[in-house]
Amino acid sequence: MKILITGGAGHVGRTLRRELAGRFELVRIFDMVAAEPIGPNEESVVGDIADIAAVENATRGMDAVIHLAAEPNEAPFGIILQANVVGTWNVYEAARRCGAKRVIFGSSNHAVGFYPRSQRINETVPVKPDSRYGLSKCWGEAVAQLYADKYGVKSLLLRIGNAAATPGSARALAIWVSGRDLAQLVTIGLEHPDIHCNVVYGVSNNAACWYDNSAAYRLGYKPQDRAEDYTDAAMAAEAGQQHEPADLYFQGGPFCAIEYEGGPIPPAE
């Protein structure tokens, strides 16, 4: 299989490349900067995700796409529009034009960030974006559904939690995903015969998790790691930090607190 990784020079992209090394015939990395170092079965293509011609050129000859390229933080709408909205549309349209039949979309927990931490949610809940960034991920999920239903481009939508090397906060203890667990989910998305347009949560086997990830388990996901193994370090990193009420109450954390004017918030449980 030949795969394209958009945003493959970023943190999550590098992590996946390391975990997936040697599994595929070719891994093409598309990013704004050259990917370094390059593995023996990798090649780097520099380009802008908002440029459909560049994206189509990078997709040509690929069997599948892992789409990670994005503005990863809350930002003015113009920045989100080009990187996350136009960019995601370009990826799916390029996949359709070039015959790539699978896309693994790096969605986010921020697509459902305005659910309270006291509520355990699954993949069927209505989206509740917590930011312009989260809203762009809802758009991406909708684009994926359209292209699956209309054009046969199948997708696994990964609502990624915290993909750091280790969880570094109390919130991360609920939503952390290890590199090898994320790579396992990606592999399922690339290879499982029953994928159409499926939503799963990109989290490890965390005791404090806010998500019912049964949909992932039904596809064969067996996470190997758990955040609570890093509890002491995460809580030490948390010590002394100040949080807004919206940060502590909602699952989206600090993204919910940005510009929050939504009214009184119950005390965090």
TrEMBL record:
<dbReference type="InterPro" id="IPR036291">
    <property type="entry name" value="NAD(P)-bd_dom_sf"/>
</dbReference>
<dbReference type="GO" id="GO:0016491">
    <property type="term" value="F:oxidoreductase activity"/>
</dbReference>
<dbReference type="Pfam" id="PF01370">
    <property type="entry name" value="Epimerase"/>
</dbReference>
<dbReference type="InterPro" id="IPR001509">
    <property type="entry name" value="Epimerase_deHydtase"/>
</dbReference>
<keyword id="KW-0520">NAD</keyword>
<keyword id="KW-0560">Oxidoreductase</keyword>
<protein>
    <submittedName>
        <fullName>UDP-glucose 4-epimerase</fullName>
    </submittedName>
</protein>
<feature type="domain" description="NAD-dependent epimerase/dehydratase">
    <location>
        <begin position="3"/>
        <end position="164"/>
    </location>
</feature>
<comment type="similarity">
    <text>Belongs to the NAD(P)-dependent epimerase/dehydratase family.</text>
</comment>
